[in-house]
Amino acid sequence: MLVAAVAALLAAGAAACGTPDRPAAVPATDRPSTAASPVATPTVQPPRLDVRKFGQLHTTDGRTLPLTGIGGSERVTRTPAGWLFAGTKGDTLLLRPDGTVLELHLPEEVAVSADGQSVAWTAAGKVTVARLTTGGLRDRVSTPVPAKTRAVTWIGHRVVLAQAYAPWCCGSDHLQHDVWDPAKGPFVARWTRGIAPVYGPLPDGAAGAGLVQKNSKEEFGAGCLARLDGVRDMSVTKRTCLPGLTWTSNWGLSSPTGRHLAEAGDDESIVLADLAGHKMVGNCPASQPLAWEDDTNLLAETAEGKLVRCTVGKSGADAVPDVVLDAASDQALVPRIGVV
Question: Where are the residues of the annotated region Disordered (predicted)?
Fold first, then answer.
């Protein structure tokens, strides 16, 4: 479940430097004025995402909508059909563009496809997928799944499943992964172990992506970027050990097109990677990736609790102004899936 902590949506742009007095008009034949031209200060962009604040949604187009019935997890995700958010009953609701709220009768944990138009969830020993529309859920397809199995993300139109198979550290479990294509009938298990985490959602045409251990003798150690089959099963087809990656990190976020990955590194920095080329495309001085604004710009939090913008292909980070990142502010960025 993707949880983003942070941010206030404030007016964009920094004030320009003062403009000198306008000189009196002179005939064209006279000597031109030598008055200095005003120099504009660089514009620092506020977050280009919606923001949840005190039970309300503040959108990038200037609207304020009530999140009626929002629950304690305060998770909100924007999709083409509206905003999915967790309700007080441990369910998932849809805030539609017209401001009305629709009960979807879904559990709190749902996986959204990369185009934002489909959801998958687990209930009563089954995984179910459906199209998400402003009118509700359409075209449901279900399959029985083994115990302790849940839908975690998508690769194109296929659903990535995870199953707990053994207890692990700190109250969590070891997971094995597989993929189910609803168009091809019931799920047939071909589990793959050792991937932690699996990234997504990823669009059609993209290979699966995750992290595997660099050294199997280390319980917590360096991780390697893994390309996964993602069609027949989740077997590893390629691995590249980029510096800074840590196996079992749960902070990684794939960009909207699935081209880039942002993952928390091992030295209070964020590794930016090209998923297709399996190469680094940036290193950002921040500790936690929060949400992608587009395919090249990522909002992240520093160790000091400041919000910054990381950009693919650019070193360093740009400050995002006037944003409070403490719990008392009760504010959070709203990631978007399938929405430009």
Answer: 18-46
Both structure tokens of 213: 């251990």
Rounded Cα distance between 306 and 320, Å, is 8
Q: What is the DSSP letter of 10?
A: -
Whichever domain contains 157, its CATH number is: 2.130.10.10
* Angstrom distance (rounded) from CA 159 to CA 84: 19
Please tell me the total count of domains within the chain.
1
Chain segment 224-257, per-residue pLDDT in tens: 999 999 999 999 999 999 999 988 888 899 999 9
Residue length of the chain = 340
Q: Which domain holds residue 267?
A: 50-334
Within a domain: residue 320? yes
Give the H or E element holding residue 291: strand 288-292
- 209 vs 240: CA distance, rounded Å: 11
In a domain, 34, yes or no: no
pLDDT at 327: 59
Classify residue 24 by burial, with Cβ atoms within 10 Å: 0-12, 13-18, 19+: exposed
User: In 3-state terms, the chain is what percent helix, strand and coil (to 5)?
Assistant: 5, 45, 55
